[in-house]
Amino acid sequence: MGASQRCRSSTKPPSCRTVWLLSMIMTTYACPKTCHCTDRNGMVVQCTSRNLENIPSNLPKDTVVLLLSSNRIRHIPKEVFTDLHRLRELDLSHNAIESVEAGAFQGISEGLRTLDLSNNHLSSLPKDTFTKLYARIRLSHNPWHCECSLQEVLRELRLDPETVNEVSCYTSVQEEYVGQPVIQVLDSGINFCNFHHKTTDVAMFVAMFCWFSMVTAYIIYYIKHNQEDARRHMEYLKSLPSTSHISKDYDTASSVF
């Protein structure tokens, strides 16, 4: 039996147990090649300014601080941090992030204390992006589109008080709010969800009006068409010989014979 087969057996010899233990340690504490790791009662993983386009997949499981700012990351997939149960601080600022999947922070949501998504390309977020997330969040300097779904997302968050007024409407369902801080707009009593409902109601009204117009046009056409047929039928009946004329011709013919 070879060494690899002996290590796969249920009863591992001491050498195999050592190899297995070392592999587990490496899995737990290994640092990605593009990053720098420092142990400070948990791993601080420094991956800032490394031209990363994706989040490293081999992060140490005891990571407590993960710094990924100033890279070229565009997308945060679902459950990408799920093994980092000790993570307390996550910095994703100054990237090119355009989308975050629902469940992206699953597995770390309850322990995370600081999340920085500032200075990215985010305009909207799925409603369940930050479910059970208690962290203080920075969302400033993103091109936010102010509408109902963004309002519902922000309602559940603890926004960083130092940057909350820098979370502004880049575009909006109402142009008058473009350039204004989102929280100030919402605090003034504006409800973007009402605009959504009004827009839906207007669209429904327009659709119903078009449908009613088509039905009315069809009825008018149907009536006019029937009137034309009726007129032609009357003209045809008028063109036929009358009954009295036919009777006189018959009597004349009978007297001759």
UniProtKB/TrEMBL annotation:
The chain crosses the membrane at residues 202-223. Keywords: Leucine-rich repeat, Membrane, Repeat, Signal, Transmembrane, Transmembrane helix. Residues 1-30 form the signal peptide. It is a single-pass membrane protein. Residues 30-65 form the LRRNT domain. PROSITE patterns: LRR, PROKAR_LIPOPROTEIN. It is found in: Membrane. SMART domains: LRR_TYP, LRRNT. One of its GO terms (cellular component) is plasma membrane. SUPFAM superfamilies: L domain-like. PANTHER family: ANTIGEN BSP, PUTATIVE-RELATED, LEUCINE-RICH REPEAT-CONTAINING PROTEIN 3. Belongs to the LRRC3 family. This is Leucine-rich repeat-containing protein 3.
